[in-house]
Specification:
Low-confidence stretches: none
Shape: flat
Number of strands: 5
Largest sheet: 3 strands, antiparallel
Strand order of the largest sheet: 2-3-5
Strand content: 15-25%
Number of helices: 5
Distance between the termini: 70 Å
Order of helices and strands: HEHEEHEEHH
Radius of gyration: 21 Å
Amino acid sequence: MSFADSPASAQQLPARSRGVIGLLEENCTVCMLCARECPDWCIYIESHKEPTPAEPGAPPRRGGRQVRNALDRFAIDFSLCMYCGICIEVCPYDALFWSPEFSYAETDIRDLTHERGRLREWMWTVPPPPGHDPGAPLPKEVQAVYGPGGVPGADVSGS
């Protein structure tokens, strides 16, 4: 009896199961919170500073040119990762997500370090977030914009 025929393979994974971590590169600001909070130190980030382009017609900036961090390298070494999810939880910009994919075994341990291109590929397998419970109250942000009923055009002032 092979593993594919076993009862364990017939079971479905839970909807938000942990498998591999996906990177949404556009959201990453290179704040380094994920790498600093990782207890295994398995996240490697390299960046450089580049000037922020001035908006056309905007007055000159005080204090000289502003710069931003540009991502050069983002890698996760899954041979060290303990899949705790701290990196995903601390990311304030929603750049890291759990993917339910778990079959990414390699024959060489060096191939378990996934660079940003491979981490981006995992984003295709990230399921959409679950919907809101039908009886749950609307988030405060929605109420602030649309009013207590959550209907566009509703009176926000309450009068």
